[in-house]
Amino acid sequence: MKTTILIVDDEKNLREGLAEALQSPIRRILLAENGFQAEEIIKENAVDLVLSDLKMPSMNGLELLRKVQAFSPTTIFIIMTAYGAVDTAVKAIKEGAYDYLTKPINIDQLELLLSRALKSRELETENIYLKEQLEKRFGLENMIGHSRAMENVFELIRQISPSNATVLITGKSGTGKELVARAIHQQSLRKNKPFVPIHCAALSPSLLESELFGHEKGAFTGAINQKKGKFEIADGGTIFLDEVNEIPLEMQVKLLRFLELREFERVGGNRSIQVDVRLLAASNSDLQALVKEHRMREDLYFRLNVVRIELPPLLDRREDIPLLVHAFINEFSRVDRKEVTGITPEALRMLQSYDWPGNVRELRNCIESMVVLAKKEILDIDDIPVQISLLQSNIPIFSSPDSLNIKTMEKELIRGALSRSSGNKSKASEQLGISRRTLYRKMEEYGLKRMTKSECRMTKE
pLDDT class for 403, splitting at 50, 70, 90? Predict the structure, then answer.
């Protein structure tokens, strides 16, 4: 697609000379000898950039700028002026002109300015488009995505939300399982009642039972008062059990009884309590495998798995990354009072090429860090954390000397992580922000696979 440039100058020789110098197969050059003619041309043509003289009869460059801004606000405006009128040119910039050039015009300088201005316009247009996409709410509740995988998830949420069916939400850590649970609640008839989440892995078995079902006064040491459990608090609403796979077997029996009879007893009590609660559960583990290992009751698994929603990892929906990135930029710019408005296409491509083992949560944390540390309005490649920029899944392996420094840095990063974690691959991969699979591949590639624990300790010392 050609870039349309309009040159406005009352001097014919300068006007036509610039047109000849800027002519190229990817450009369409239009000419106007005064502001009124330029105004008519812009109304009839999609002009990307106006290169206008400042001093012209009848309508000067500053007046033309104001008119262009009124009916074509995305058109870039560059002022040409004599040296003595620089103050007026600066005033034009304050009113919205992109930049100015002093006469006589240096063509090389002009070409650089045009290139920078058009690239800036392209970036601004892309950021505006992505913001418009977000405003159209490509997603559901606080979930964002327009990939086929996420559209399927959104459609399933809409289908099952009006029912009272128990839902099992599965997926890797950081994929947004609690967001799905909240979306189901908000789309249901229970939305005006409580939504009560509980993280099962964060509590010991004894505390978990008391948290879920409550306890009577004197039920155990320290139980000085009667306490309602989460199921009572959620009466009429929804309870969300995150990491349900961490519930111990003895507690699974009581949860199964609730699912079958919709009743329970408080710890230390003997009275059955009935509540109207919808149960949503989530797990990042394979529950069928846990059943085979006798770590989960099969009957409970079937009770939980009435309707299942499988969340895709971010790796499988890379096309959603631009929308997520811009949503997080908007969020953290507002929260942290930063004037970050967008991201360059090059930086966005780098983020899209990374594997994101921590999924949306890792991406969110990455963008928060970039926004907080940003020194410019537009995020760029040098703002991306080093562990992501150096350890992308698609880093090509070159044999040229130019790649030696990057490969050495990457190798030392991995060696350092292994040292700090005393050879623990899980901890090392977590430090580096990569998957264990990627870590093993990199270790084999750099000859670090046989690095022993003693070597790790020596490196650390």
Answer: very low
Q: 3-class SS at 309?
A: strand
Lowest-confidence segment of 94-98, 318-322, 331-335, 408-412 by average pLDDT: 408-412
Q: Is the dihedral of CA 382, 383, 388, 392 positive or negative?
A: negative
Measured from the Cβ of residue 185, the count of other Cβ atoms closer than 10 Å reads 23
Whether 120 is covered by a domain: the verdict is: yes
Q: 377 CB contacts (<8 Å, ≥6 apart)?
A: 339, 340, 341, 342
pLDDT at 455 over 60: no
Answer whether residue 402 shows pLDDT above 50: no
Cα 115 to Cα 47: distance, rounded to the nearest angstrom: 15
Which pair of structure tokens corresponds to residue 387? 């562990």
Read off the amino acid at residue 401: P
Half-sphere exposure of 194 (CA within 13 A, CB side): 16
pLDDT digits (tens, 9 = 90+) for 158-168: 999 999 999 99
Instruction: Say if residue 204 is in the same domain as residue 219.
Output: yes
pLDDT value of residue 157: 94
CB burial of 362-376 (b: ≥16 within 10 Å; e: otherwise) equals bbbebbbebbeebee
What is d(CA 44, CA 49) in angstroms, rounded to the nearest whole number? 14
> Residue 397, Cβ neighbours under 10 Å: how many?
7
Q: Which of 267, 266, 256, 340 is nearest to 297 (CA)?
A: 256
Residue 84 has pLDDT above 70, yes or no: no
**Residue 49's closest CA among 72, 88, 77, 13?**
77
- The one-letter code for the residue type at 166 is T
Strands 273-274 and 263-264: antiparallel
Residue 394 lies in a domain: no
What is the DSSP annotation of 15-76?
HHHHHHHH--TTEEEEEESSHHHHHHHHHHS--SEEEEES--SSS-HHHHHHHHHHH-TTSE
Number of domains the chain contains: 4
Question: Is the overall model pTM greater than 0.85, yes or no?
Answer: no
- 3-state secondary structure (DSSP) of residue 197: strand
On whether both 111 and 157 belong to a single domain, the answer is no
Residue 396 has pLDDT above 60, yes or no: no
- Indicate if 157 and 274 belong to the same structural domain: yes
- pLDDT value of residue 141: 63
Diameter of the chain by CA atoms? 100
Q: Please name the helix (run of DSSP H) or strand (run of DSSP E) that holds residue 321, with its range, or none.
A: helix 321-335
